[in-house]
Amino acid sequence: xxxxxxxxxxxxxxxxxxxxxxxxxxxxxxxxxxxxxxxxxxxxxxxxxxxxxxxxxxxxxxxxxxxxxxxxxxxxxxxxxxxxxxxxxxxxxxxxxxxxxxxxxxxxxxxxxxxxxxxxxxxxxxxxxxxxxxxxxxxxxxxxxxxxxxxxxxxxxxxxxxxxxxxxxxxxxxxxxxxxxxxxxxxxxxxxxxxxxxxxxxxxxxxxxxxxxxxxxxxxxxxxxxxxxxxxxxxxxxxxxxxxxxxxxxxxxxxxxxxxxxxxxxxxxxxxxxxxxxxxxxxxxxxxxxxxxxxxx
Amino acid sequence: xxxxxxxxxxxxxxxxxxxxxxxxxxxxxxxxxxxxxxxxxxxxxxxxxxxxxxxxxxxxxxxxxxxxxxxxxxxxxxxxxxxxxxxxxxxxxxxxxxxxxxxxxxxxxxxxxxxxxxxxxxxxxxxxxxxxxxxxxxxxxxxxxxxxxxxxxxxxxxxxxxxxxxxxxxxxxxxxxxxxxxxxxxxxxxxxxxxxxxxxxxxxxxxxxxxxxxxxxxxxxxxxxxxxxxxxxxxxxxxxxxxxxxxxxxxxxxxxxxxxxxxxxxxxxxxxxxxxxxxxxxxxxxxxxxxxxxxxxxxxxxxxxxxxxxxxxxx
Lengths: 297, 315
Known about the structure:
Chain A has about 300 residues and is mainly alpha-helical. Chain A has 14 helices and no strands. In chain A, helix 2 packs across helix 14, helix 4 runs antiparallel to helix 13 and helix 11 runs antiparallel to helix 14. Chain B is built from 15 helices and two strands. Chain B is flat and about 70 Å long.
């Protein structure tokens, strides 16, 4: 009934398009594009400038007026960074830390989220409320005692402090995954139970495969959080061999010649490239994941 | 076996009620599944929070065992001029960055919600800066905002504006950091965009029939319907900006003067440069209470400005 009146009103409304209205719509589109392009330039220029500066000749940073396009393209800046700091090692370190964090977070968060979304147990609502409130907790209160604990265990200058937390169901990821799991039809579980499947099999073989977009979203966020983390490595790693890239790229600046614009930009470009590449690969999932995990509230 | 019995149970009365009923088994399995999080809660949250409170009542330099001080650390904060400075810097930054960031994200989201060709490419462009880590941002923008040689002031000079000393002028530097934070508005915009797309089109059509213009539709339909997301974004924004660290540590080192002495930077120095773990813990607790206070105020006043749809529409 309401659908009929709606479509009727819509058709009336559409046939009454006056020439002024058409002109106004066209003007609006032009306006939208002008804004979109204007904003895009602001958002993208720093990135383009970073890449273009990474192939500028030595000394460009001190030249005035600054150039946007390199006067000549110097690709040697990139290998030069590898000679100044153990870049390959840092890249490997960062990859290792991020891979551990992502694996731990995906496994633990999905398992916990599965229980909150699809199993019944006493205290579920209360515990979920606790989980929600921990999301609001600023990390600063636990920073010092955690450091003291890891230090007492003799595990500073190891990757344990940077990755262990991920294996214990980080609250935000649990929350997002639970929201997603709730959208999957419960009858799937019932049918599987009738067939004799126990909970772990339902989780592993039914729910997880269906949750790929949400898992990809969380995996990417977890990767970025870990890859880009600066304060964690700063606090826990003092052995320069163990540095992650976040520390390494900054470390470069303390070397002879490390003040060069071109070297810094080459290092920065290589540092951010994995995040951007990964984003492009998983973009489809991320958008889907953000929409379906109900990040909207 | 037991579970089979209980499933058949409804009609036939079993001789003995099995202890392991279906629901009891499910509860045990559920607790095993959530055990990682429960352990994590104790090991990484509850334990450290209690420990942190204990440290805050002691003098603790890592070399010796903590010595009991009572509330002396908290009293010391009252007379420590840097605490006041740090709170002022952090508060000002939060007051500027959160509202401006929210509005920018919302504007970008509104733009990205337009149905024009090629909008997907724009979405990617707007989101890209959010992928860049704080370290890279600090290094890149140090060059861009260089007072004499930076490209920002060069471009400004071309249009006849004399650019300020972005990072060297204590009256300007916080604004510079706010401006930089807006560069990451794309991440908030993606969330707002998802919310905007959840607003039922029929509401807009009904309003148009009633003769509502663009602004009125935005103010009376869009804003109320996405207000829960706005609140979420403001709360996470406040929690985040109160804990600003990397950018000030790497770019300004708290300067010029103390113009960017963010609270967390001061806390970090106390803890990891001067090994004043006790005093730093007290600083952490006070920041924690401040953040909690603002979060609760936002939540408690939310009924005044956040519109919640009836529970029937809940997904």
